[in-house]
Specification:
Strand content: 25-35%
Structural class: alpha/beta
CATH architecture of the largest domain: 3-Layer(aba) Sandwich
Helix content: 25-40%
Radius of gyration: 25 Å
Shape: globular
Number of domains: 3
Number of helices: 11
Largest sheet: 6 strands, mixed
CATH class of the largest domain: Alpha Beta
Order of helices and strands: HEEHEHEHHEEHEEHEEHEEHEEHHE
CATH superfamily of the largest domain: NIF3 (NGG1p interacting factor 3)-like
CATH topology of the largest domain: Udp-n-acetylmuramoylalanyl-d-glutamate--2,6- Diaminopimelate Ligase, Chain: A, domain 1
């Protein structure tokens, strides 16, 4: 198995196209065609993690956080980032990062938090914009069903819990083949009038390549007329954070449960409201930007990390904000990835990193 083949498997869980624009995801170091001897899964790629990969003969590190985030102008080993890169390159170790692609996955970071905390029926807290596209194409009436089936087969027309969704209208198309054309319908030099079906179908943006390939392969015309537009519609199945419900409990009991289940030594929180907890929103990592979204969706509690002093006021006395630590919200991510890879690539050397990477200590 090559690095590229492992990347293809990982993109089933978290397509890189769904990562945020500011992020740096994908293969950061290494040759995609390199044969993989073993995979080490980690939250962060530090020097001790690279050393662990060397010891375990793993030449691919799958990391949640990207070690290379900003551009570098030299590679001299003057800081921890450059030392990691030099050591990885020297030992032919590839590094692949998932970060916000996995944050936005409905089976990713926040789904894992919900699983650990026992949050039921979780939904996306902040659905992602710009990840739905619409294809419009024009097909001869008697060929339309065949083209539709080809598009459905590769994932076009999937909307939430529904498949094979499309909308069609009938109309009349015209075209005049020129001298070097090879028309399937009509004659060169003559205007042809054809009864056509206009097909409208949506799809997730990460599937665009295979959907257009399927369109060109199935469409009968030599020159396929089509339009692709990006929609502003919210994608309810992709996005940041999740919100769901727990068995109703009091604030004190809930916090004690969070502390135990999330292995956090301390919880920073806004004022307690002396009311029951039922509806819980979560967002792994730095999630202060989602406070207002949690409020709008009537969360009793919002769990995240890196909340600043004044941001705790944004609870507005309507919900409790809990900061349980950045590492703590994301710590189970590597377990999620190991489980996923083990199911997808059985009987392969996949290891959960044992290296300590949390930069924050508590006294």
């Amino acid at each position: 198995m090559t690095v590229k083949e492992v990347m293809t498997v990982l993109e089933e869980l978290a397509p890189l196209h769904h990562a945020e624009d500011f992020d740096n995801v994908g293969l950061l170091v290494g040759n995609p065609n390199q044969k993989v001897t073993g995979i080490l899964v980690t939250l962060d790629t530090l020097e001790n993690v690279v050393d662990e990969a060397i010891a375990k003969k793993s030449n691919l590190i799958v990391s949640f956080h990207p070690i290379l985030f900003k551009g570098i102008k030299s590679l001299t080993g003057k800081n921890y980032v450059e030392r990691v890169l030099i050591k990885a390159i020297r030992h032919h170790i590839a590094i692949y990062s998932m970060h916000t692609a996995l944050d936005n996955s409905p089976r990713g970071v926040n789904a894992k938090i919900c699983e650990v905390l026992g949050i039921k029926n979780p939904k996306i807290l902040i659905p992602k914009k710009g990840s739905i596209k619409k294809l419009v194409t024009y097909i001869p009436k008697n060929e339309a069903n065949r083209v539709k089936e080809a598009l459905f087969a590769v994932g076009a027309g999937n909307i939430g819990n529904y498949e094979n969704c499309s909308f069609s209208t009938m109309g009349t198309g015209s075209f005049k083949p020129q001298a070097h054309a090879n028309p399937t319908k009509g004659q060169i030099g003559e205007t042809n009038i054809e009864e056509e079906e206009q097909l409208n179908i949506t799809y997730s943006s990460d599937k665009e390549h295979i959907i257009l390939e399927a369109l060109f392969a199935a469409h009968p015309y030599e020159e396929v007329a089509y339009e692709v537009t990006t929609l502003d519609n919210l994608n309810q199945n992709i996005g940041m954070g999740m919100i769901g419900e727990i068995d109703e409990t009091d604030e004190q009991t809930f916090m004690e449960g969070v502390k135990k289940k999330m292995n956090t030594p301390i919880i920073r929180h806004s004022s307690l409201l002396k009311k029951s907890i039922k509806r819980v929103a979560v967002l792994g990592g730095s999630g202060a930007f989602a406070i207002k979204d949690a409020l709008r969706q009537n969360a009793d509690v919002f769990i995240s990390a890196d909340i600043k002093y004044h941001q705790f006021y944004e609870a507005e006395g309507q919900m409790v904000i809990m900061d349980i630590g950045h590492f703590e919200t994301e710590q189970f991510t590597k377990n999620l990835l190991v489980d996923f890879l083990t199911k997808k690539i059985p009987n392969f050397a996949i290891a959960l990193s044992e290296s300590e990477t949390n930069p924050i200590k508590y006294f």
